Structures are given as C-alpha cells and as structure tokens.
Amino acid sequence: MPKNKNAFSSAGELGGSLAAWRRRALTRAVHAGWRWVQGTGAVTADRPGRLRFGAIGENTKLAFPQGTVFGEPWIRLGAHCIIGEQVTLTAGLMPDLDLGPDPILRIGDGVVLGRGSHVIADTSVTIGDDCYFGPHVYVTSTNHSYDDPHTPVGKQWPRMEPVEIGPGCWIGTNAVILPGARLGRNVVVAAGAVVRGEVPDHAVVAGAPARVVRSWDPELGWQPPLRTPAPVPIPEGVTPEQLLALAELTDDVPVATEESPAAGQ
Length: 265
Fold this sequence. Notes:
Layout (H helix, E strand, L loop, with lengths): L6 H35 L13 E2 L4 E2 L6 E2 L4 E3 L4 E2 L4 E4 L13 E3 L4 E2 L4 E4 L3 E3 L4 E2 L4 E3 L1 E2 L15 E2 L2 E3 L4 E2 L4 E2 L4 E2 L4 E2 L4 E2 L2 E2 L3 E4 L4 E7 L3 E3 L16 H13 L13
C-alpha cells in the first residue's frame, strides 16, 4: 500500500532546493562581478587610472587590486609586462618627494612580477628584460641601520645601495634581494634565498645568505651536472592552435592498464 507523502516534508525539500538555487546564483553573480572589477581595475597604458608612471609600455598590465604604489613619475615599466595582484612598486622613501630628473625604478620588457611581490626603490633599482619573479619576492635598495645602540632601529637613517638584476633571471618564491645586489644574466635564485653582493652570469644561488650552488662552464656545461633531462623544445613552426588540438587529443587517449589490451602492446 503506498504511503502518503508528508506535505510539510515536501514543502521543506522545495524550500531547500530554492535556497540552494539562490546560493548558486548568488555565487555565480559574485564571481562574475569580481571578474568585472578585476578587468576594470587593471592598469594599462590606455587605462592608467590614478597612476601616472614615468613610462608604461604597450600590453603591460598591473592586475587589480594593486599593492602600494607611489613615486610613479620615477617608475618606468617596459612593454609586455605582467604585474600580479597586490604588487608594491615604490620610488623614494615616501610619497610626494621630488626625486630629480632621472628614473629611480626601471623595469624592462617582458617582466613578470608574481602576486604579493615588493620592489622598494629608495635609490636606483633596475630589473632587466624577461625577468620572472615568483610570488612574494622582496627587492629593496634600502636597509635599516643599527649603528647607535641607544636609538630604536626604525628611527636611524637607513643605508641605500643600488640594485641591479640582469636580463633573463628567474627569482623564486619568497626570495629577498638586498641593497647592493648585482645579479648577472640568466641567474636563478632559489625560493627563500637571501641575496647580497654580486652574482655572475648563468649561476644558480640558494640559501640565506645565498651562495652559488651551480654554474655554467662553456666547455663542461653545468657544474655540478644537472640531474634531470633537458625539456624537449616545441618544434619550429607549430602554432598555438595545433598545440591546443594536440592537448585535446591527448585527453581523449585512454590510459593503458594491466587489464587493457594496450598494456601488452
């Protein structure tokens, strides 16, 4: 004999379904709204907003929300740069200073600064072309002094030294580049490293303080030798459309298992 369905139970299920639908709709609306805010709040050469950089190259974008930015008339950004969310870029010790005729912070073409990174240029900081920073990298040309043991460190006049990062460098997550650091071309800085002084071209540095752990020799190659095989380069002439098609084809290929006929072939 069929059981009678409880009317209150049915109403509760219907109410729960409506509430779940409203939550899903609200979630979609919030995400769509945030994407619109991110797109509208991004800074480019065509849409600088309140920021007036000394220069900003074509196709360079500062993601929204931006971090602390001041002294922008003395900041020059190259072309095709990607500045992640919450990245701080400052020139001078504080806002509204006259820093003279020359730029203080120079960022080359094709530079990527990861989310939450800081570049503090109280004196000259130069980042070469095609440098890639992971998240939360800290670069500063200023350090606190502690000469006077009777005065709080924060109240003592800081020391400043220029910083130069050569082209093609990769700076890992949470690395710190200290005043006076001079990195050569194609240097790799390991995550969490603290770099000071000079680093030669084509070197890998790690640790705190950072030291060279691998370097390139024109005759012997990398020393110590690399422990992983070199990546296979994409053949010349392959288009982005072909790569996408290949990726879709790979997703459709069944994975061979011990039970499948492909496993024994």
